[in-house]
Design goal:
The protein is mostly helical and 160 residues long. The protein is built from 7 helices and 4 strands. A two-stranded parallel ribbon has the order 1-2.
Length: 160
């Protein structure tokens, strides 16, 4: 979890590659109207996010039912979004990639092919409720270091 440009996808893909976890890109499940809104530079509201969070929760429920080891990216900026995703299931863990707005803004400026424009970063930081129960990493750390620490903390076997 974290704001756009914090490195969620990079870290999650690397984690999945190292551990054999199934990777789900949360952005792929946004309804077209959300993508259009963000592409136009309009921040999403809680109502906009509801359908998206429900779709992600459905994936989580199915993965848990199948005992599937997976990793999913999702901004999950507010506590109520994280609550909707986890529904008090202790098997669902959150990893918060945190960092200074200046670093993340620089990353977004150089990112290509994504619907989330840099202009929306301030709106994400404005609603961010840092979690008290997540594993928190600085997004300035190299992704390899973050993944190595996650593997160690979670006690996950490495598949390579």
């Amino acid at each position: 979890m974290g704001v756009a440009g914090s490195g969620k996808t990079t870290v999650a893909k690397l984690f999945a590659k190292k551990t054999g976890a199934i990777f789900y890109e949360g952005d792929d499940f946004h309804p077209p109207e959300n993508v259009a809104k963000m592409s136009a530079g309009i921040p999403l509201t809680d109502a906009d996010r509801k359908k998206w969070l429900q779709a992600l929760r459905k994936i989580i429920v199915h993965a848990l039912a199948r005992n599937e080891f997976c990793v999913m990216t999702c901004s999950a900026l507010k506590a109520k979004y994280r609550d909707a995703l986890a529904e008090d299931d202790s098997r669902v863990k959150f990893v918060h990639l945190a960092g200074p707005p200046t670093l993340i803004a620089e990353r977004l400026k150089s990112r290509r092919g994504h619907f989330m424009p840099p202009a929306l970063l301030a709106s994400q930081f404005a609603i961010l409720e840092p979690p008290s129960d997540a594993l928190v990493f600085s997004c300035a750390q190299p992704p390899e270091e973050i993944v190595a620490e996650l593997v160690q903390i979670l006690g996950v076997a490495v598949s390579d």
